[in-house]
Write a structure and sequence with these properties.
Elements: E1 2-11, E2 21-37, E3 42-44, H1 51-60, E4 66-72, H2 82-94, H3 100-115, H4 122-129, E5 134-139, E6 144-149, E7 154-160, H5 172-180, H6 184-205, H7 209-225, H8 232-242, E8 247-253, E9 260-266, H9 270-277, E10 281-284, H10 290-298
Parallel strand pairs: 3-4
Antiparallel strand pairs: 1-2, 2-4, 2-5, 5-6, 7-9, 7-10, 8-9
Helix pairs in contact: 1-2, 1-3, 2-3, 2-4, 3-4, 5-6, 6-7
Bound molecules: alpha-D-galactopyranose.
Length: 301
Amino acid sequence: MGRAPGRVNLIGEHVDYLGGVVLPAAIDRFTQVSGHRADKWSVASDVEGGLPYVQAVGEELGAPPQAVRVSSDVPPGAGVSSSAALLMAVAAGIRPDLAGREAALACQRAEHKATGVHVGVMDQFAAALGRRGHALLLDCATLEYELVPFPEELLMAVVDSGERRTLAATPYNRRRQEAETGDPRRRRHVDSEIARVHAFAAALRERDFERMGRLLNDSHRSLRDDFEVSTATVDVLVERACHADGCYGARIMGAGFGGSVLALVERECSAAFAASVARPVLYCQTADGAYTALAGRAAGE
Ligand code: GLA
């Protein structure tokens, strides 16, 4: 048995694989797995495509083959990291004794193996070590992190663009390579985004919601113009979200190329916001990561 959450990323996009700083949070949407020994790996799930992930993380952790059953309310392809939730749920089931950091690195290696996409460690880290009531300020170069309280009166609204994708079908690896080899426009995004993460974390601590919103909007422009990971549909949605009642700011979230928009919304305005964006909205609260929950249980919380 294992259970792990999806994640949102408040800010710090396409910087994790370059050793940058990111600010994700685990969310109250979970994937749950159970398994028993079998001759070969298999997966029973409402969502297709889980087998390569489950098998890769099982093998990474040295587990013998299992028949695995999956249930989840983390929407796939929507930018809230259903893949990290699945990987981490399996890891927590097989190796609840691991340190959260080790589990995150094992799941990242498994994702590389399963998909060939060279993702960073942000999603797996949030799914392992996020904490309810907090965002996680993670330095991807050292894997040191700090928890930053997330205000009760704000909601993280994940707005579905309707453009679904799997990362393997996107130019994710190409963007990563362009940034690594120093393409000036890609680097301009990376450097400015890292500065925005620090500014956002400071604004979050000061509860300066207006400033947080402006930084989200700036992040979107940089992802759209300099890193070129947005789409026309998403741009329109970000624009609409920004002008909706109770919204402080919005941007494309996660890898991009479709997926979801993240907006910060005043809790009291949730209904008005959803009505004005006229798209399905997933309101998320922060939650404990898989290994945070395991540690809490061990401590009798
Ligand atoms: C995906 C990857 C992460 C990160 C984001 C972009 O979610 O899994 O490692 O690179 O894209 O910030």
